[in-house]
Design brief:
The structure holds two protein chains of two kinds. By secondary structure, chain A is mostly beta strands. Chain A has one helix spanning 4-16; strands at residues 18-22, 28-29, 43-47, 51-60, 73-80, 85-90, 103-112, 121-128. Chain A has one domain: Beta Barrel (OB fold (Dihydrolipoamide Acetyltransferase, E2P)), CATH 2.40.50.840. Chain A has a five-stranded antiparallel β-sheet, covered by helices on one side. By secondary structure, chain B is of the alpha/beta class. Chain B has two domains: 4-117 and 210-227, Peroxisomal Thiolase, Chain A, domain 1 (3-Layer(aba) Sandwich), CATH 3.40.47; 128-207 and 235-384, Peroxisomal Thiolase, Chain A, domain 1. Chain B has 14 helices and eleven strands. Classes of the chains: A mainly beta, B alpha/beta.
Chain lengths: 130, 385
């Protein structure tokens, strides 16, 4: 679902990858939460690093609604340089190039075409490191 | 807590059932179960259904189903835990009976999936993933399990053929199940060369979109003993556990921790070890899932699920048969019904009523039902007395 309110609410994470770090145990949460697994409720602001490596991947051949024209496209779970993980598309990457360990950089990209609400969704994608 | 027995079972055929609505399917399975149990009423009804709103445009189904079953004004509850909704329905009903709150409870599951287009069904299923951090980026359920498969193959050397073998085995079993959606033998080559969905998974690695319903009747064990009708099947254990619904937030992508925790709890509750279980019905929504489930349930060591499948451990004539019903792969996967359909197969086997697919050793069995990419799991252990 993409409505103006949802897009606006998610902007700190999708546009700027704003996360947070537990003030007690140091665990990083993306997106931010109010309770850490250690029980602490105190957090410090933190921004995710923009480089990492692919730890698993796939090529989506049958795409969901909103992505039909893009298939096939690469996706993966990326472990960022601080150890936190995100799931995202891996753009500018031929399927043959995909492998575990591939070094990537995180870039700001268009994610989905405008749906019924007319809002274009932007966010983060990984690209092979240059 | 009172011990609880299963005294009646019923299910519809699984498939594309264009003549039947959601309520038609549920009532058929429920009446089958009521007739099988020989009871004249139920005290309460619990229905597992993942998304009647998105698949059939209908919510408030607890009351709807109780009404159409001719059982109004009983208590009727719909429970949801994505594809584990059916297993959870049995667990919730079990708690009603074990606690003494009700005596005769109908636990059912239903999903009517083919009234919507393939794209709408894919969207509805994807709501079991993290909408903001998975589905938003364009990943599908086959895509999530494909990433589990890629990681498993890399970490443990699991082969593409091992994944295919799960489909081959389950289709072989489904050939003997009259309720199964697909009565179709497949080969490893056919699976590997079938249409690609999300690499490395192809269409024949995926369970299908299915309409169907299943139901069981449960009551206190002591009440069941007085009935003396059939071999009595006791629910020896019921366990439920959760995990992050976002796959990338797990420490080990290849480890289904909700299943591991639920299985460990279930073994403890039943006072048994994995090697005391004769066979299992497990959640093979994708071929890789069955491999990971074998590991999480402690049937094989971490990383050896593919090898064990290749060597025939889980075949119908193997040491530990898995999915004698044909599994989700061949029997079909009407998501809310699946957990109860697993129980239907196990009771059928424990009673010795499975005909051509009857297993030689069937005294105690395990059912593992899983939601999403493993964000929830429900495990039951059943024994014949």
């Amino acid at each position: 679902m993409l409505t103006p309110a949802i897009v606006r609410r998610n902007t700190p994470q999708r546009y700027r990858m704003e996360a947070q770090k537990c003030a007690k145990c140091g665990k990083v949460f993306f997106p931010p939460r109010v309770v850490c697994a250690c029980g602490s409720r105190k957090f410090k602001g933190y921004t995710l690093p923009k480089e990492g490596k692919v730890i698993t991947h796939t090529v989506i051949r049958t795409a969901p609604r909103g992505f039909g024209d893009e298939a096939p496209y690469c996706m993966g779970i990326v472990e960022l340089s601080d150890g936190s993980r995100i799931l995202c598309q891996i753009a500018d990457c031929e399927p043959e190039r995909l492998k575990i360990g591939l070094e990537v950089a995180i870039e700001f990209r268009k994610i989905q075409e405008a749906g019924e609400s007319g809002v274009i969704a932007y966010g983060y994608k990984a690209v092979p490191a240059r | 807590m009172r011990d609880v027995a299963i005294i009646g079972i019923g299910m519809t055929d699984f498939g594309e059932l264009w003549n039947d609505s959601l309520r038609d399917l549920f009532v058929k399975a429920a009446l089958d179960a009521i007739n099988d149990a020989g009871v004249d009423h139920v005290d309460s009804l619990v229905a597992g259904c993942m998304s009647p709103g998105l698949f059939a445009g209908q919510e408030h189904i607890g009351s709807l189903l109780a009404d159409y079953l001719g059982q109004g004004p009983i208590a009727a509850t719909r429970v949801e835990s994505a594809c584990a909704s059916g297993g959870l329905a049995l667990r919730v009903g079990l708690m009603e009976v074990a606690s003494g709150m009700n005596d005769v409870v109908l636990c059912g599951g239903v999903e009517k999936m083919t009234d919507v287009s393939g794209a709408q069904a894919t969207y509805a299923l994807a709501t079991a993933a993290d909408q903001d951090y998975e589905a938003f980026h364009g990943v599908t359920f086959p895509g999530l399990y494909a990433m589990i498969a890629t990681a498993h193959m890399h970490k443990y050397g699991t082969k593409r053929e091992d994944l295919a073998q799960v489909a081959v085995k389950n289709h072989d079993n489904g050939l003997l199940n009259p309720h199964a959606q697909y009565h179709m033998k497949v080969t490893v080559e056919q699976v590997i060369n079938s249409v690609k969905v999300a690499d490395p998974l192809n269409i024949l690695d995926c369970s299908p979109i299915t309409d169907g319903a299943a139901a069981v009747i449960i009551c206190p064990l002591e009440m069941a003993k007085k009935m003396k009708k059939k071999p009595i099947v006791k629910i020896a254990a019921s366990a439920h556990a959760t995990d992050t619904i976002a796959l990338h937030q797990r420490d080990d992508i290849t480890w289904l921790n909700s299943t591991a925790v639920a299985a460990a709890k279930a073994y403890k509750m039943a006072g048994v070890k994995p090697q005391d279980i004769d066979f299992a019905e497990v959640h093979d929504c994708f071929t890789i899932a069955e491999i990971c489930v074998l590991e999480a349930m402690g049937i094989v060591k971490k990383g050896e699920g593919g090898k064990a499948t290749r060597e025939g451990l889980t075949a119908r004539d193997g040491k530990f048969p898995v999915n004698p019903s044909g599994g989700l792969k061949s029997k079909g996967h009407p998501v809310g019904a699946t957990g109860i359909a697993q129980i239907h197969e196990i009771v059928t086997q424990l009673r010795g009523d499975a005909g051509k697919r009857q297993l030689k050793k069937a005294r105690r069995a395990l059912a593992q039902n899983m939601g999403g990419s493993g964000g929830s799991a429900v495990v039951h252990i059943l024994e014949v007395l």
